[in-house]
Amino acid sequence: MARKPSQRPPSRRKAPPPAPQAPVAARKPVTIRDVARKPVTIRDVAKVAGVSAITVSRALSRPELVTAETLARIQAVVARTGYVPNVLAGSLRSRRSRIVAGVFPQISNTLFVDTIQALAERLRQDGYQLLLGLSAYGAREDELIAGILGRQPDGIYLTGISHSPETRRRLMASQIPVVEAWDLTPTPIDMLVGFSHTRVGEAMGRHLLERGYRDVGLVWSTDVRAEMRRQGLLSALAAEGIAEAPTSPGPAPATFQRGREGLAELLATGKRIRAVACSSDPLAQGVIAEARERGLAIPRDLAVIGFGDFDFAAYTSPAITTVAIDKAAIGRVAAERLLARIRGEEVAEKVVDVGFTVVRRGTT
Amino acid sequence: MARKPSQRPPSRRKAPPPAPQAPVAARKPVTIRDVARKPVTIRDVAKVAGVSAITVSRALSRPELVTAETLARIQAVVARTGYVPNVLAGSLRSRRSRIVAGVFPQISNTLFVDTIQALAERLRQDGYQLLLGLSAYGAREDELIAGILGRQPDGIYLTGISHSPETRRRLMASQIPVVEAWDLTPTPIDMLVGFSHTRVGEAMGRHLLERGYRDVGLVWSTDVRAEMRRQGLLSALAAEGIAEAPTSPGPAPATFQRGREGLAELLATGKRIRAVACSSDPLAQGVIAEARERGLAIPRDLAVIGFGDFDFAAYTSPAITTVAIDKAAIGRVAAERLLARIRGEEVAEKVVDVGFTVVRRGTT
DNA sequence: GCGAAAAATGTTACCGATATCATTCCGCGT
DNA sequence: ACGCGGAATGATATCGGTAACATTTTTCGC
Fold first, then answer.
1. Are the beta carbons of B81 and B66 closer than 8 angstroms?
2. How many Å from the CA of B9 to C1' of D5?
3. Phi/psi class of residue A273: alpha, beta or left (left: φ > 0; alpha: ψ in -120 to 50)?
4. Is the pTM of this model over 0.90?
5. What is the pLDDT of residues B268-314, one digit of tens each?
6. What's the distance, CA A269 to chain centroid?
7. Which of A92, A117, A131 sits opposite B88 (nearest CB)?
């Protein structure tokens, strides 16, 4: 803590020596013009304020280490010169970049947005910034992460748990705190915040069964996590003796249009279908539109369940029954774990399961 | 260009002097174990490969400056040691950070997501990464940008044109290429990619008038850009002699719930309302839901127009009439302008107007 | 009033890459 | 055979902060 200013006389320790430079007086010392023209450095500020560079550094990053009077003087000079500390230089020396990198498969039209927002906001509270990486559903994750590592992030957020062995090795070797998210595994690279897609699938299946639907069709994406949900769903059906479910697969990311096509495909098989499970809400929305067009009443003729609780899901008509995830919590908790580890704390629970909720609405 | 390898004998220029160190032989030089344990630096790689640090630097960033044989040797060492260049150090010296910062008011539930995605992807193509800043609708933009400037970004993307004089000054002084987006002004800080909100508002008004609606109510957000759209809308109405329009204002970001309340408020005024213009699609969706609940047929009893062409807008029933913006184009073009300026090219057209389209659907 | 501990400030070196300039080597024309 | 020019590589200084340690000043107990 700083001492009370009143107890410390304003006189400086050493009287300015009668050097060739103008003596550093109290109010009107070196002017801005005396300083190098273009980029103001910490040494420029130091010179004008009549202190050493390290004192300026302290005044800006740990003001409590500096006399109130010194602090005020330095702040004035900073304001006057428009000095902006070069974070690159500081990070290089201190080995703390105050950057956390986040890797997402894609952001438009996905649920990750809410996680990103929560992640970024929580990080900012502690003075960290988010470096955004888009991996295009895994296609270029390796290259991306290699590039990110060179930026010396203090922490890394990854979407999902499927990474190349090479990337895993690199990340573990880097010693940087890592959170994997949106999935669950007993063996994360480091930490993990997510939920079980298998169990989500099971819950979707059970919900349909409980509502009395046994003839289930699937309109489904082929990405890794969707695939796990599918396995869960199939096993829930199997537990009730339902051996198979007609499926219309499609590439990620899922779209409304794909949902329409999906239902058309399913109906074209001629098999009896009373309910359609979708790997995400946009697909469900498409299925609903296609059903309506074909004169099928929902849920009377056809039930639909989605996944993700997208913003629109509660507001379609009928509103979509879906599975809700606390997306913001994932981002927030991930940020907090990373920050804790960056502060050097041990994180006891390496794996956090945020769970999920089946939200029954009008389509089942 | 490198000479053909065949023309250059594999022997190195200077025979390794009989120094105390082991002579650097062709295949089996210094082993990994000889190198410092923890962070592999460029000098470690250089030593193992038997070249100088700068040659390694060249091999990695401008391979054409190095013999094919040298390149191969260095690449092998890099792979073997798992060397990751410290970008911070390189950036500090070269004054190129290969980072572009983007500032957005918020991302969840907004249109900016598509722009972010396009921006990030285009930047990545040129080896740049996106540093994401959330300004919470302007509340902390100043502080945020001050922090960003210290990271020495090579370019800056800003949402909107309303910035504090302090921020404007700082940005102009920094000499960093800046693109402002999602708005239009003849006097940008540097470059601009956007569209005229005033004209959007006018177009919305004209559309309603053309469809025969003269009793117009507004459910509107209070952020800067929405306000400009409102002015445009009002002036279009005024041009047809309509002096006033009942308005239910609300804070940004706009939500479905706010839309419902908004319509309730408008109807409570008792004034005659045949059409509701909304400052964004989520509001429109809420208005539609509230209208349905009150037994109002759309568009027969009440017409609705939104803004933004959100993902869901085409898929509600009835589908929402709205104003579409090419959000991805904004991001892409912004990235390209920034990259061009970073490369040192002059950008002739400082201001790009991407325009907009009124998309008539089922609600008008 | 003295000495030890704490507070405030300073000196120096260093983080790890690359810009700059220097040097060496080789091919080729005359 | 010689000299020139370009290709390949190297030595050194430097970017702008901060860690680590040193020094000076102040406070405070007895």
1. no
2. 20
3. beta
4. no
5. 999 999 999 999 999 999 999 999 999 999 999 999 999 999 988 99
6. 41
7. A92
